[in-house]
Amino acid sequence: MSKVVILGAGVSGLTSALCLLEKFPDKILDLQIVASEWMGDYHAHDFTSPWAGANWASFAEINELDQINRDKDAYLEFERLAATDPASGVKPYMLKFGILKDRDLPWYIQQKFVKKIKIMSEEELRFRNLDPSLYHGVEFQSFTVTPGVYNAYLLTKIRRLGGKVKRVPRLDVITDLVPILGYVPDLVVNATGVNAGKLLRHEEPDELKKVYPVKGQILQIYEDLPHQVMVETLPEELNGKSYQFLNIFPRAEGGCIIGGIMAKGDWSRTVDTELSESILEVCRYHVPELKSTTVYNSYAALRPGREGGVRIELSEYQLKGRSGSLKVIHNYGIGGAGYQSSYGSARQVCDLASQVFDSKKTMAKL
Ligand SMILES: Cc1cc2nc3c(=O)[nH]c(=O)nc-3n(C[C@H](O)[C@H](O)[C@H](O)COP(=O)(O)OP(=O)(O)OC[C@H]3O[C@@H](n4cnc5c(N)ncnc54)[C@H](O)[C@@H]3O)c2cc1C
């Protein structure tokens, strides 16, 4: 039986914890989630999970099979949760998606993976101020997740399965876990988001260069909308920033979030008020059915980007000044897709954990 520690209580850490507890009840003696920030904390914009949109609209390119599989797993799980457990905070909505004609349709439309696919009519494109000679549009069933509700729901399930929780100050490096715990766990899952590079800077200096923030800026409004709308590349007449796009997602409890931007490498927390005006203008232009937009909150937060994409990999680090090593499965660097690929990433964590548990069994027999 193994002692497992999950470092990080965002959606990546929580989903990994839940899947491990569900899959290995006979192999896990003790599972503890250790993190400096928890759901309900809104003081840190580099703790990303509370700030997400969050919808399902896979970013994977058609040849990125691993990412496609991760996103497929989460779509199917969100579909199940939305149908069976509204308390999860996951709700189905149709997504109306305007895409430039010179871009391929997303893999999930080409492969007919998502449900209720429709091609947007030229009339609707014109209604949305999208020139049909430049844009095509698709609709399909997506989901919106309310982060606070959903992550609390995951945590409740984890605790029912015996998972424990512990708040700690921010660790400087990953091996600091050992003195904090007072023992060497059999397995650590590193789900520390945009801070993972800093935590690994001694063991793997390259990761410090690879992990980067992708800043987002969001407005929250009181008004409801019966569907989501996304426009990937904004028409020139809107004079938006090069990294600006439109997404508007209604949420289960009412109101919508509106974004946004993808500003790579920007660690700042400032909300740009001029940009907020532009985000609203873009929204009114493409979502004319929204008669008013009463903003009650605006914020900026950081997506955990990584060169090469999410890292789901097993590493082993020697511990200085004591015998033994730390086995770590990484699950960080998922960028803007942490919710929409959460179950697929957690499935891969479980596959690697199975190897660790099996090797422990083999060692015990020797
Ligand atoms: C504006 C915006 C919109 C988004 N929209 C979507 C969307 O529509 N769909 C979607 O799928 N995703 C979306 N995302 C992305 C999604 O939010 C992230 O991919 C996801 O939240 C990352 O979760 P995580 O668990 O990996 O990291 P985090 O949520 O950042 O969690 C990291 C955890 O590690 C802990 N930690 C970090 N460093 C340390 C340390 N040194 N010591 C101790 N603990 C530490 C933190 O306290 C925290 O508990 C959006 C993000 C933003 C900002």
From TrEMBL:
Binding positions (FAD): 48-49, 192
Alphabetized GO MF terms: D-amino-acid oxidase activity; FAD binding
InterPro entries reported in the protein's UniProt record: D-amino_acid_oxidase_CS (IPR006181), DAO (IPR023209), FAD-dep_OxRdtase (IPR006076)
Residues reported to bind D-dopa: 303, 336
A Gene Ontology biological process term: D-amino acid catabolic process
Top-level taxonomic group: Eukaryota
GO cellular component, one term: cytoplasm
Domain FAD dependent oxidoreductase: 3-352
Pfam families for the chain: DAO (PF01266)
PROSITE patterns: DAO
Family: Belongs to the DAMOX/DASOX family.
Designated name of the protein: LAME_0E10814g1_1
Cofactor dependence: FAD
Keywords: FAD, Flavoprotein, Oxidoreductase
